[in-house]
């Protein structure tokens, strides 16, 4: 992703995915397990940000690997805007 960003001369990831913001400010945090089994869990964090107009929702996908839970993907939403970290990191197919 860093190499693609340098080639484009612009950032691909221009915000903090943990807080879904450029200037993190988390208020009124709520965390809930949306789904879970022995191999995968989805945990949602919802919160307000200073200056934000809509409640942020960030979902963390955890997978169990070698007996430990590891973050596998992060996705977020603020109002109607949605993003997925795994999708942002994928190289785009070049136009021909």
Task: Provide an overview of this structure.
The protein is mostly beta strands. It has helices at 2-8, 85-89, and strands spanning 26-36, 40-49, 56-65, 68-78, 81-84. Helix content is 12%, strand content 48%. Strands 1-2-3-4-5 form a 5-stranded antiparallel sheet. Strand 4 and strand 5 (81-84) form a beta hairpin. The model has no long low-confidence stretch (mean pLDDT 84).
Q: Separation of termini?
A: 21 Å
How would you sum up the major sheet? 5 strands, antiparallel
User: pLDDT under 50 segments (min length 5)?
Assistant: none
Please identify the structural class as seen in this structure. mainly beta
Number of strands: 5
Tell me the β content: over 45%
> Could you estimate the helical fraction of the residues in percent?
10-25%
What is the rounded Rg? Answer: 15 Å
Q: What is the strand arrangement across the widest sheet?
A: 1-2-3-4-5
Helix-strand topology string: HEEEEEH
Net shape: flat
Number of H/I helices: 2
Write down the overall mean pLDDT.
Answer: 84
What characteristics describe this protein?
5-stranded antiparallel beta sheet; 2 helices; mainly beta; 96 residues; 48% strand
Summarize the structure.
By secondary structure, this protein is mainly β.
What topology does this entry show?
Layout: H1 2-8, E1 26-36, E2 40-49, E3 56-65, E4 68-78, E5 81-84, H2 85-89
Antiparallel strand pairs: 1-2, 2-3, 3-4, 4-5
């Amino acid at each position: 992703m860093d190499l693609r960003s340098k080639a484009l001369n612009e950032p691909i990831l221009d915000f903090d995915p943990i807080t879904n913001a450029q200037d993190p400010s988390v208020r009124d945090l709520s965390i809930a397990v949306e789904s879970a089994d022995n191999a995968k869990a989805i945990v949602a964090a919802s919160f307000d940000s200073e200056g934000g107009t809509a409640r942020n929702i960030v979902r963390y996908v955890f997978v169990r690997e070698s007996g430990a839970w590891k973050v596998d993907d992060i996705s977020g939403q603020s109002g109607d805007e949605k993003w997925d970290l795994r999708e942002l990191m994928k190289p785009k197919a070049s136009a021909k």
